[in-house]
Amino acid sequence: MKQLHKQSSINVRRDEEIATSKSSQYSPKTLKHPRSLPRSIHYLLKEQRLLFVLVGILIGSTFFILQPTLSRLGPTEPRTSIPRSFQVSADLPERDQVSSVVPKFVHGYGRVPASVPRRRLRIVVTGGAGFVGSHLVDKLIARGDDVIVIDNFFTGRKENVVHHFKNPRFELIRHDVVEPILLEVDQIYHLACPASPVHYKYNPIKTIKTNVMGTLNMLGLAKRIGARFLLTSTSEVYGDPLEHPQKETYWGNVNPIGVRSCYDEGKRTAETLAMDYHRGAGVEVRIARIFNTYGPRMCLDDGRVVSNFVAQAIRKQPLTVYGDGKQTRSFQYVSDLVDGLMALMEGEHVGPFNLGNPGEFTMLELAEVVKETIDPSATIEFKPNTADDPHKRKPDISRAKELLNWEPKISLRDGLPRMVSDFRNRILNEDEAKGF
Ligand SMILES: NC(=O)c1ccc[n+]([C@@H]2O[C@H](COP(=O)([O-])OP(=O)(O)OC[C@H]3O[C@@H](n4cnc5c(N)ncnc54)[C@H](O)[C@@H]3O)[C@@H](O)[C@H]2O)c1
């Protein structure tokens, strides 16, 4: 073994000697000598090598010249929907500037030419099994979007969305927004909250928790996933208004310790949270202040004046008027509201925007329209008014008209008959279930 090793080291040394003796005959250093320049030129000119070099240079420079143009023509990289730049409208007073701060990008993407088909969106509707939510879901599904409804069914009903159950673009999740949830969506319509006084006063602590913690959770989700967030606030933020009609610039007259404050102050806090997430975390928010809305699928006995009157007239009961009946309200048909909410979500303005029908009716006038539509022989019964009931309510919708190009189309006399058959069927089913 030792011998073998010795032999191989001798061989290595011999190889080294041979190499040194060879190098003495041929020195590669001579190549670098200036006298070899003609030889290099000769090498370059031989076998069209120069031509290949020139063609290479030409291809390289063509690529670098065209590259920026090509990258502009290629598909746009999706940008984060957290707006990086804002524009502020100069025609509003300073205190309202924040409401007109608009993100430059819609849906978090660069502007696309009109001819490019719209991307299908995935949208969450909290409270989507309720009255307004279910109509919104219908319209979003009809537009071709994917919709996920989150609802705890406190006032909502599966029947309101049952017609979508077989649609693969529809999902229903039983969930309480007071608890956090993680989903991947483009837009969040946040409606979850009981809307009628009967329901929101039933458990006021739960109502304010829904408004504060529920809104916080959904805003947190919007921030995390870069989704656009729309809050359905209410005309109740104006309380018993001292300004008439109410503009978005009016700060309201709300009793902070009254029986309605779980709802009124809850919604005011929800608006505050939305604006703070917008200013502080760059979340794209939209705020709608909804005025009285009516239509099919309203809860039958929820204490709201239109549903009360219609149900009472169908059941042949006297129509209950609280107080002297001279307090005024405006009534908006639900499809008008849904159009307004979608225009707001798709538009570039944060709001808040009043969404309501400016037609103003006293309770007694409304009772007359219900009598004309359903039962002219119906009678009226007066009862003492409830606490903190506002005397007047009428939206000024000039801002929505101008910036969202939206205004309601359906008058009370046209809208009321559209909800009567739905109410009749449900009252009939209820009576059958009770064995009448
Ligand atoms: N309808 C109106 O006239 C009117 C007026 C002003 C504001 N709004 C607002 O519009 C939204 C929808 O109102 P609506 O009339 O459809 O009321 P609704 O009671 O019919 O619908 C509310 C829905 O939210 C659900 N919900 C309630 N609490 C929840 C919770 N903690 N977690 C998950 N789901 C919950 C209910 O089950 C229901 O499906 C509400 O935010 C309401 O404040 C409505």
From TrEMBL:
<keyword id="KW-0812">Transmembrane</keyword>
<dbReference type="InterPro" id="IPR016040">
    <property type="entry name" value="NAD(P)-bd_dom"/>
</dbReference>
<feature type="compositionally biased region" description="Polar residues">
    <location>
        <begin position="1"/>
        <end position="11"/>
    </location>
</feature>
<keyword id="KW-0456">Lyase</keyword>
<dbReference type="InterPro" id="IPR044516">
    <property type="entry name" value="UXS-like"/>
</dbReference>
<keyword id="KW-0520">NAD</keyword>
<keyword id="KW-1133">Transmembrane helix</keyword>
<dbReference type="GO" id="GO:0042732">
    <property type="term" value="P:D-xylose metabolic process"/>
</dbReference>
<keyword id="KW-0210">Decarboxylase</keyword>
<feature type="transmembrane region" description="Helical">
    <location>
        <begin position="50"/>
        <end position="70"/>
    </location>
</feature>
<feature type="domain" description="NAD(P)-binding">
    <location>
        <begin position="125"/>
        <end position="419"/>
    </location>
</feature>
<comment type="pathway">
    <text>Nucleotide-sugar biosynthesis; UDP-alpha-D-xylose biosynthesis; UDP-alpha-D-xylose from UDP-alpha-D-glucuronate: step 1/1.</text>
</comment>
<keyword id="KW-0333">Golgi apparatus</keyword>
<dbReference type="GO" id="GO:0070403">
    <property type="term" value="F:NAD+ binding"/>
</dbReference>
<dbReference type="GO" id="GO:0048040">
    <property type="term" value="F:UDP-glucuronate decarboxylase activity"/>
</dbReference>
<comment type="function">
    <text>Catalyzes the NAD-dependent decarboxylation of UDP-glucuronic acid to UDP-xylose. Necessary for the biosynthesis of the core tetrasaccharide in glycosaminoglycan biosynthesis.</text>
</comment>
<comment type="similarity">
    <text>Belongs to the NAD(P)-dependent epimerase/dehydratase family. UDP-glucuronic acid decarboxylase subfamily.</text>
</comment>
<feature type="region of interest" description="Disordered">
    <location>
        <begin position="1"/>
        <end position="33"/>
    </location>
</feature>
<protein>
    <recommendedName>
        <fullName>UDP-glucuronate decarboxylase</fullName>
        <ecNumber>4.1.1.35</ecNumber>
    </recommendedName>
</protein>
<dbReference type="InterPro" id="IPR036291">
    <property type="entry name" value="NAD(P)-bd_dom_sf"/>
</dbReference>
<keyword id="KW-0472">Membrane</keyword>
<dbReference type="GO" id="GO:0032580">
    <property type="term" value="C:Golgi cisterna membrane"/>
</dbReference>
<dbReference type="Pfam" id="PF16363">
    <property type="entry name" value="GDP_Man_Dehyd"/>
</dbReference>
<dbReference type="GO" id="GO:0033320">
    <property type="term" value="P:UDP-D-xylose biosynthetic process"/>
</dbReference>
